[in-house]
Amino acid sequence: MSKSVQLTESQMTWIRLETVAAILHRASDLELAKIGLNLPQVMVLYCVKTSAEPMTPMKLARIMHRQPHTVSALVQRMEVKGLLKTTRDLKRKNWVRISLTSKGEQAMQRWPTVTNVPDTLTSPLSKRELQTLSEITKKLHAAGLELIRQMQTDRYAEPLLW
Amino acid sequence: MSKSVQLTESQMTWIRLETVAAILHRASDLELAKIGLNLPQVMVLYCVKTSAEPMTPMKLARIMHRQPHTVSALVQRMEVKGLLKTTRDLKRKNWVRISLTSKGEQAMQRWPTVTNVPDTLTSPLSKRELQTLSEITKKLHAAGLELIRQMQTDRYAEPLLW
């Protein structure tokens, strides 16, 4: 059986990106385990903390590009851990608002002071490479959102937050 | 409560990369669902197909940078779906070898012919940006592996395969 698969240059780029994403996740999770968190939890804390509007599980799912049921389960686990609290919206009873507890607030403020992963990963990059990476990231972000919009029928149009 | 979190430039870069990774995953999963696959399954098929050596679940976990128990469960589900078969190694009874079934082989050959995600995502990038992205990816890959090695005590040193 042949060992080769015929891939185009863009398909190889996609596989390299996917591999790097897996490595970043693994490195981040190993580091975050030391402070009792994991990557999805940090992303939830960051999204809730920096959002200008009240946060709901559905909105969080759109911003994080995850399935709503995955995010609901994540929010529930984080509430049990005391990092988040959820309250029913007074105007729309079926809406749940998510906010940080003081423990969640402390965890979010602590994360940037203890993490070494972002600095260590980007340290081999030149200033020009970092700048190009930022431009590339924005283009991939926009192209990815457009693709998702075409493939998905429900509303999925969160703007670029950062 | 303040809405701001003080982050460094590299921490913001890390969050942007994480967001783009989530978007790439979502777009890929939406597309792959049409041919009855998902992203981790395609990565398993690709790794098993292109490996020069016999593949084991432990080796797969290292290449994919996932937890061994996650990969074992994934391999089991793919065996039930008829995409993979596992056989005991004749020399080392506790080793399991993974290989593609003809259905898995067909799925792997079919994927590059039906996927539009890689082309669409990279089409807004200039030739220079694509080249820089390739260099950046290699540096992030190497820096990430080094970080994981420092944080993890067990053997974790798969070379760059592509």
Largest interface (CB < 8 Å)? A-B, 75 and 75 residues
Enumerate the strands of the largest sheet of chain A in spatial order, edge to edge or round the barrel: 1-2
CATH topology of the largest domain in chain A: Arc Repressor Mutant, subunit A
The helix/strand series of chain A, from N terminus to C terminus, equals HHHHEEHHH
What's the oligomerization state? homodimer
Helix-strand category of chain A: mainly alpha
For the secondary structure, the number of strands of chain A is 2
Largest sheet of chain A: 2 strands, antiparallel
Describe this structure in words.
Two copies of one chain form a homodimer. Chain A has helices at 9-33, 39-50, 57-64, 68-80, 102-114, 117-122, 127-151; strands at 84-88, 96-100. In chain A, helix 3 (57-64) packs across helix 4. In chain A, strands 1-2 form a two-stranded antiparallel sheet. Chain A folds into two domains: 10-117, Winged helix-like DNA-binding domain superfamily/Winged helix DNA-binding domain (Arc Repressor Mutant, subunit A, Orthogonal Bundle), CATH 1.10.10; 124-154. Chain A is globular. With 162 residues, chain A is mainly α. Chains A and B meet through helix 1, helix 2, helix 5, helix 6 and helix 7 of A and helix 1, helix 2, helix 5, helix 6 and helix 7 of B.
